[in-house]
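Why does residue order matter? Because the sequence determines the fold. Keep that principle in mind as you read this record.
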Amino acid sequence: MVRSRLRTSTGFTLIELMIVVAIIGILAAIAIPNFMTYQAKARQAEAKANLGSIATTAIAHFAANNTFVVTALSQFGYATTGRTRYTSWYPVSGAATAIPGSSSSAPCDTAPAAAAASTPAASVSGFTAAAKGQIDSDETCDEWGINDSRLLTNTSDDLTN
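Structure:
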């Protein structure tokens, strides 16, 4: 009677459990890097959205004052809210100035690099604003620029480095 019960008992063998664990490991090895990439792309959306808002504010300033040049950020009338991963920059009296409320971690909290597409500059007829931030745990900064034509440019892509 005991012997027949042992033969009819159901359950998983050790080999079956090891196969399941191996399959889960393979799926995790594929899924986790993809998840990290999608997460970083979502973080880049912050820079794109903030720069779009800065462009809208600059164009509204141009409509009211017939120039993109500002001598104080209070004239510009834009500030970010909440916790940000990027520092946004707009030129004030010709110098790249951080937008209030925007902040990133070191070493990405310094002014953007002098790439033509991301160097903050303003004139009577055009402007360039920039954003720089850290979206993953390496030393490379993610840098974006936008101009008066609303052309977004990624001058330093932290996803590919």
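The helical segments are 2-8, 14-65, 73-76.
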